[in-house]
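Quick review question:
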């Protein structure tokens, strides 16, 4: 694998290869601190991030790499430098990989066409977030053994969610049934063509779910209102304590973060017995170690 630009286009074998590598890291695989020793991984984050940037940094260090953490603050972007000029200049310093998060969909794809080193998409606009989908699938697989045949319900701002798109591709490739639930205004037109089932009746589909993923409403990507109010959204689409009681025994609750507690998910649910949200965070380092190994060797 030369780059990781998205889940779309990856085979099931590609996905399972990353998951196996991540599992090996969690089970005490032999020391891998030599894998990228003497090399540099450059984190280029044009958007803010906590979990993704931190876990890519920790993953790179675990493989023996030095890490360049680049952000727009204090950079020449403020002076009008283009994306391509930025990535070409960073590449000229010799990194083995560029980990790129950008507000524009397709930015990592553009960079990959103009650099020789590996490019990893850490989230591009409303398009994809492949490493998040891989760690979500890994979290489910570790709990279930197999994702195939399970029903995963994704609720919330599907329209603006790169996480939803990557998870749809990833979970479908692994044999899961994926159901998307949102107000009609927050469902992309034609999303069914990607293999998703679509509904806006949360209470009808909730008891069918083996796992529920709640998504934050991404107001920063919205130039208009897509629903009357946060209170109304929470009433119709929020995973509150009463709804959590209707989940299957053993059903799992996920959230890619950051959470708006009390809007898409109640605090009691986020911290409750169904939640594997902190497992997702913990698995981020293992998955991103596996990704760096796949693209950098």
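Suggested answer, residue by residue:
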């Amino acid at each position: 694998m030369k780059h990781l630009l998205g889940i779309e286009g990856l085979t099931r074998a590609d996905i399972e290869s990353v998951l196996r590598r991540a599992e090996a890291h969690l089970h005490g695989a032999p020391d891998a601190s030599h894998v990228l020793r003497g090399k540099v991984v450059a984190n280029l984050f044009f958007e803010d991030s906590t979990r993704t940037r931190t876990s890519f940094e920790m993953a790179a260090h675990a493989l023996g790499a030095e890490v360049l953490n680049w952000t727009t603050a204090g950079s020449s972007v403020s002076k009008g430098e283009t994306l391509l000029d930025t990535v070409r200049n960073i590449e000229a310093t010799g990194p083995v990989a560029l980990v790129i998060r950008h507000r524009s969909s397709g930015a990592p794809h553009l960079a990959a066409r103009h650099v020789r080193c590996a490019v990893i998409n850490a989230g591009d606009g409303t398009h994809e977030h492949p490493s998040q989908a891989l760690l979500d699938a890994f979290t489910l697989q570790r709990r279930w053994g197999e994702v195939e045949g399970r029903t995963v319900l994704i609720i919330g701002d599907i329209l603006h969610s790169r996480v939803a798109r990557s998870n749809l591709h990833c979970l479908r490739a692994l044999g899961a049934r994926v159901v998307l639930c949102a107000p009609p205004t927050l469902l992309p037109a034609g999303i069914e063509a990607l293999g998703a089932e679509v509904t806006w009746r949360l209470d009808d589909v909730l008891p069918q779910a083996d796992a529920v993923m709640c998504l934050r409403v991404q107001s920063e990507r919205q130039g208009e209102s897509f629903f009357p109010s946060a209170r109304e959204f929470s009433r119709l689409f929020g995973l509150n304590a009463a709804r959590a009681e209707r989940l299957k025994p053993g059903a799992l609750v996920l959230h890619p973060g950051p959470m708006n507690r009390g809007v898409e998910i109640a605090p009691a649910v986020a911290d409750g017995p169904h939640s594997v949200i902190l497992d997702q965070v913990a698995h981020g380092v293992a998955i991103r170690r596996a990704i760096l190994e796949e693209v950098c060797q």
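Why it works: The beta strands are 40-45, 66-71, 97-102, 118-124, 151-155, 177-181, 197-199, 211-214, 252-254. The two ends are 9 Å apart (CA to CA).
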